[in-house]
Structure formats: structure tokens, C-alpha cells
Amino acid sequence: MFFLAKNNNLTNEAEEVESKDKPIYVKVDETTRNIIDKYKHLGTTISNLVKDAVEMYDEYNSMSPEAKAVVDTYKEDDEKIITFLEHAINYYGKQKNLDRDLWVRTRDEMKMMLIGKTTFNQLIAAAEAPKDALEKPFKKNVAIDLILWYTGKPLKNLKLEEVITTVQKMWVVANYFYKIDVHHEGDEFHLLFKHRQNKRYSRYWLGYFTELFSSEDLPYKCIIEGQTFDETLSMTIKVAYENNK
Fold first, then answer.
1. Are 82 and 71 in contact (CB under 8 A)?
2. How far apart are CA 185 and CA 193, in angstroms?
3. What is the tens place of the pLDDT at every residue in 43-88?
4. Which residues lie below 8 Å from residue 106, measured CB to CB, with a gap of 6+?
């Protein structure tokens, strides 16, 4: 009895393996046959073609109900699904590029700036302040907030080079300056900010960045020198010592 039971189990297992490995034969119409022949001539085997088709079918039918609802709502009755997907992808690409292209155009053609509320208020205060009273506007400095947002790192882990690289990137993106050149020799950095404003604009940003690199929140103490010109701000920044906090 034990031998028979064991033998039956082996037979069942063999049949199961055989059934899984057994080829699948299906009759297809002429259109499907032509598609198969097309990809066979390109070197694709029928088994791989069936595998890819079944996986694609399964992935499509595994979409979320929300995504399927979008397809059902906007696809025309006589429209092929691939045609609809092509239109959807093209539309998505155009929308993704629209805002970026518009921003680039307004920055280059209209000289517009990407400006936050705090900086906007600071610049208004700077414009209204007497010529020799720029200190108050740039004292309220949000540069560190922007640097933390961009780097995603704790301030204590940021090296001076990372802070300067972030300034070089973000202040050009915002169009406060059309170019910021950075030269690095040893532990000393020379920054050349280029704009199309005036010397008062240079003086404002010199005070702003001096406030930033003098901040007690930075993990190092910097030596800062700067000169202002009509359309250029020159700064030299060097780490004097590490703050022990």
C-alpha cells in the first residue's frame, strides 16, 4: 500500500511538471500570424513574443482603477489604445516642458527673477532705505533655509565648498545673477557675481552673503573679503577654523 501511494505521488508530480512544460498550441487569425512572422524575421522567438505579450497584457490590466477611468473617459471609441497612449505621452511631455521653457524665456528675455516673499520684502526695504542704510534689509537672511532645502543635509555636515556650490547654482537659477564664477585654491574660494543692475545692488548682495558666511550657525568661522562694482561683486571666502559645537 505504501509503495502504491508513493508511486501515485511520483506520477502526479511528473504529470504536473509535464503539464507546465507542455507546449501551448493556439490557432490565430491571419492578422496575428502576420505580426508573429514580422517579429520572427527580426530574430524574436515565438515563446519570447508570447511571454512579452502576456506580461504586457497583464501589466496593462493591473493598472489602478483611477488610471483605467482616465483611459475610458478620454479615449475615442474607434481609437486604438496605442494611439491614445502616444497622444497622452506627448501631451504629458509638452506640459512638463511648458513651465520650464516659459521660465527660461522670461528669465532670458524679460530678465525676471524667481523670488521668495522674504527676499522680495528685503529688496523693497533696501530700495526704500537711504543709500548708506542697507544693513537692516540683508540682516534677515533666508539663504541657509534655501541651502538646506537644496542639499537635503544638516548644516553641520555641509562643507564650505558645498555651500558655495549651492549659492552658485540657486542664485543663477533665480536670476539674481546671470553668472557666478568660482575659483578654488586650497582652502580659499574666490567668487565673482555678475549682474546687470548697479553698484547699490552689488553692495546689497555683499552684505547679504557676508551675513551668510559669518553666520554662527555654520560649523566653521570664515574670513570674508569683498569688493563691489557697477555690475560685479567680488568675494573671497576662506575657512579660519572649525567651530566646536
1. no
2. 18
3. 778 888 888 888 888 888 888 888 888 888 888 888 888 888 888 8
4. 112
User: Of 53, 57, 24, whose CA–CA distance to 36 is shortest?
Assistant: 53
Identify the top-confidence range among 91-100, 137-146, 171-180, 236-245. Answer: 171-180
Element (H, E) at 227: strand 220-228
For 221, the enclosing helix (H) or strand (E) is strand 220-228
Dist CA 80 CA 130 (whole Å):
68
Q: Which helix (H) or strand (E) holds 214?
A: none
224 with 235: CB under 8 angstroms?
A: yes
pTM exceeds 0.90, yes or no: no
Query: Residues 48, 51, 57, CA angle at the centre, nearest 5°?
Result: 140
- Spatial CA neighbour of 19 closest among 9, 11, 7, 27: 11
